[in-house]
Amino acid sequence: MSINSLSIFFLVCYLSVSIISASPHALPVQNPLNSAARSAHPQEYILKSDFDIHAKPTTRRYNLTVTETKAALDGFLRQVMAINGQIPGPLIEANEGDRLEITVINKMNIELTMHWHGLYQASEFWEDGVTGVTQCPIPSNGGIYTYKFDTNGQRHKRPNDSFARDPLKRSIDFDHDVVLMMADWYHNTSSDIVQEMLSEAGYFGTPAAPGANCALINGVGQWNCSLATTTQQCNQVTSPPEFTVTAGQRIRFRLINAGVHAMFFFSVDEHMLNITEADSTGIYGPSDFRHIWLHNGQRYSVIVQTKEEDVGRNFYMRATMNSDCWAWVPNDIQDTALGILRLAHDDARPENVSKARPDTQGWPQDFPQECIDIDPSLMVPILKSTVPASVVGWVWFQLINNTAEHLTREEAVRLAKEAHHDSSRDPNLRGKKKYVTISHRAKHYRDRSDGSAEDLHDVCRVPATFHGKGGGYQENSSSRHAAVDTGQEKNRQHNPQRFGGRKSPAGITRLAGPPPTPAGTIGKYFVNNVSWTTFPYQPVLHDLTPGGVGTINGSRVANVIFPTAEWYDLYLVNVDAAGSHPYHLHAMDMHIVAYGRGFPTPEKLSKIKYSTENPLRRDTVVVPSASFVVVRLNADIPGAWIMVLLIRIL
Question: Which residue(s) pair with 336 in the sheet?
Answer without folding.
Answer: 320
